[in-house]
């Protein structure tokens, strides 16, 4: 190093120390990354669900808004559409009925429905277009598979006729 000036020697020493520090910092960072606990990669979900959608799962929730024949206006948020249900009406005075629901023990009325609990979860809420929101509050001997009975209070005008319908649900 005799041919170098003092200034060049200092710059060379500084560069050597600086490069050594960068290499040590890189090695330390590399070791820290390797020793860090491994994290699970999360798959992004549009919507999570406790209950599967056995129908058409929507990428984002929609809102059903309508004025029903009984004069009530309703809004229902849903993200699953299930087709092919046969819906008929009933009240607490039907033959073999106790007047109360089996799952919630309350009088049969509008907004409570009888369902097959193997198809629709007990006490879950779903939406029937033309009828409105419905709580799965009852079961029935004739309610099997994709059949539901929409409830009415005794003596209430029954504007619902038996029909094939979709139901909308919100799966969390």
Architecture overview:
17% of the residues lie in helices and 33% in strands. It has 172 residues and is of the alpha+beta class. The protein folds into 2 domains: 1-39; 56-169, Barwin-like endoglucanases (Beta Barrel). It is rod-shaped. It starts with 5 loop residues before the first helix and ends with a strand. Residues 41-49 have low confidence and may be disordered.
Task: Describe this structure in a few short sentences.
The protein has 172 residues and is α+β, with helices and mostly antiparallel strands.
With strands numbered from the N-terminus, the spatial order across the biggest sheet is 2-6-3-5-4-7
Listing every helix as H and every strand as E from the N terminus to the C terminus, the arrangement reads HEEEEEEE
Overall pLDDT metric: 83
> Low-confidence segments, ≥5 residues, pLDDT <50?
41-49
- How many structural domains does the protein architecture include? 2
- Overall strand count: 7
As a percent range, the share of helical residues equals 10-25%
* CATH third-level topology of the largest domain: Barwin-like endoglucanases
Largest sheet: 6 strands, mixed, barrel
**Terminus-to-terminus distance:** 74 Å
Radius of gyration: 33 Å
State the shape: rod-shaped
Compile the SSE list and pairings.
Layout: H1 6-35, E1 56-67, E2 73-90, E3 112-114, E4 125-128, E5 132-138, E6 147-151, E7 163-169
Parallel strand pairs: 2-6, 3-5
Antiparallel strand pairs: 1-2, 2-7, 3-6, 4-5, 4-7
Task: Describe the structure using short key phrases.
17% helix, six-stranded mixed barrel, 172 residues, alpha+beta, single chain, rod-shaped, Barwin-like endoglucanases, 2 domains
